[in-house]
Amino acid sequence: MTEKIIILDFGSQYTQLIARRIRELNTYCEIYPYNKYPKETDGIKGVILSGSPFSVNQAEAFKPDLSAFRGKLPLLGICYGAQLLVHYSGGTVEQAGSREFGRAHLTTIQNNDPLMHNIPVHSQVWMSHGDTITTTPPQFQIIASTREVKIAAYRIDGEQTWGVQFHPEVYHSEDGSTLLNNFVKNICQCKQDWTPDSFIETTLVELRKELGDDRVVLGLSGGVDSTVAAVLLHRAIGDRLFCIFVDNGLLRKNEFEKVIESYNTLGLNVIGVDASELFYNALKGVTDPEQKRKIIGKNFIDVFDAEAHKLENIKWLAQGTIYADRIESLSITGMVIKSHHNVGGLPEKMNLKVIEPLKLLFKDEVRKVGRSLEIPDSLINRHPFPGPGLAVRILGDITPEKVQILQEVDHIFINGLIEEGLYHEVWQAGAVLLPIKSVGVMGDERTYESTVALRAVLSTDGMTADWARLPYEFLARISNEIINKVKGVNRVVYDISSKPPATIEWE
Q1: Which residue among the candidates 29, 79, 188, 190 is catalytic per the annotation?
Q2: pLDDT one-digit tens code per residue, 290-332
Q3: Catalytic annotation on 167?
Q4: Which of 325, 317, 319 minimizes the C-alpha distance to 347?
Q5: How, if at all, do strands 44-49 and 4-9 pair?
Q6: Which residue spans within 110-198 are E strands per DSSP?
Q7: Out of 167, 340, 341, 411, which one is annotated catalytic?
């Protein structure tokens, strides 16, 4: 039985970071909506309540029944979670005089408390709340304060329940990992034995048990997620796995041929399908980003379904869905951020059962599993690439001519990163063709041509990202090469937006 920590999500932008930090401690955890505590409780060692954009005093605030676990399991409330526990217990949470946001330092700490063990006085923490706890019931004991926040952390006497008004999961909280480790290891007494190798061993057993002698079809994209899913399934069921790789005409330059060659070296049974003309016709004149994604998704389903029906006795559809896909596709409030090509549609169309061997892994965890499976670095360390391909990097309508321009620009940019040793320094990079033309001068002639934006970001899992500070000399050389070699482009800009508030892709 796998030990795990349960995180109840109240809508915080940092919820996924909590999960990331817990997993970095070699402890498995899962995120559930605030009101969906799992019915199957075997293996649960502790519970964390996340932050929230709401105030506990708002009528629409999330206020679940905590009786299933409070007083029965170790419990840690973070920010809103901490305030919720106070509010439920008869304490007071009030609007702060000014919003408490940013760096603060712990001025007093009870180091004999197991949660605060080995955290030094003056440790930097990250605050992000508009309310603050002003009074607590008698059984609440203050275990840490800052200059501005008297009740920065507390423990409830008589139960293994703690609350902190800062965010230990955020990098700016210098000893946040120590605090979370204290909770996971010392308080919840987790064994911290969840590793890539243990994940592979467990998953292979589960796949063989669930799939039996059935045959499985998988859509490959060339990305790390579908690659790792394919190799994992191949190791579990061998030649009963069939892979289909669809060229939608929106891949990188020469991508289709390179990917097919790479997969053949892995011993996978891959069927390649060139459907570029079909996709171009379907996308003609479409400019809305979400509509593009839906059209590409629908046509991929149609092509994939047609190819899969040429195979016999297929019972399962495998998908390379990862945790970030599931989180971004539907938020806790039900608001779609963006559609993901591998989260729905195919199962209903094909009437197949679905298997998603990577559905609980973050991107960097998928890579770690891939390395343990001995997949070549050339596949494991590839940058993420959007499912709809270059369609969401061409703002406006899609034409074969625009795709060719962007493929050439992207090729120069990515090859430049590789040649300069910068490719593995960034998490994801690509180029965007903008629906903007500007005046330029080439030789003695006036030009009026397109603008492209270069994008490179630093991240660990794609949930948050910062723009990469690429050397000016490199950007100048790449800009010059693009303008000189790619007909139709006379201006290059560099995107310096972070996520949030921007997304990594432009559409």
Answers
A1: 79
A2: 999 999 988 988 998 899 889 989 999 999 888 777 655 444 5
A3: yes
A4: 317
A5: parallel
A6: 124-135, 140-146, 153-156, 161-164
A7: 167
Three-state DSSP at 103 gives strand
Residue with tokens 């994008």: 455
* 169 is an active site residue: yes
The CA distance from 152 to 107, in Å, is 10
Whole-number Å distance between alpha carbons of 491 and 448: 10
Give pTM, 2 decimals: 0.76
Q: Which listed residue (169, 174, 255, 307) is catalytic?
A: 169
CA quadruple 201, 207, 209, 213: dihedral sign:
negative
Overall residue count recorded for the chain in this entry: 507
- Give the neighbor-by-neighbor strand order of the sheet with 270-274: 270-274, 241-247, 215-220, 314-318, 353-355
Q: What are the angstrom distances between the C-alpha of 435 and each of 441, 446, 506?
A: 19, 19, 12
Spatial distance between the Cα atoms of 419 and 21, rounded to a whole number of angstroms: 33
Residue 3 annotated to the active site? no
Residue 78 and residue 76: Cα distance in Å, rounded?
A: 6
Q: pLDDT per residue over 329-377, tens digit each?
A: 444 544 444 444 454 555 566 678 899 999 889 888 999 999 999 999 8
**250 CB contacts (<8 Å, ≥6 apart)?**
276, 279, 296, 388, 389, 390, 391, 398, 403
Distance, CA of 228 to CA of 212 (rounded, Å): 20
Long-range contacts at 389-392 (CB < 8 A, ≥ 24 apart): 389/248, 389/250, 389/251, 389/296, 390/250, 390/251, 390/252, 391/250, 391/283, 391/292, 391/293, 391/296, 391/507, 392/289, 392/292, 392/293, 392/505, 392/506, 392/507
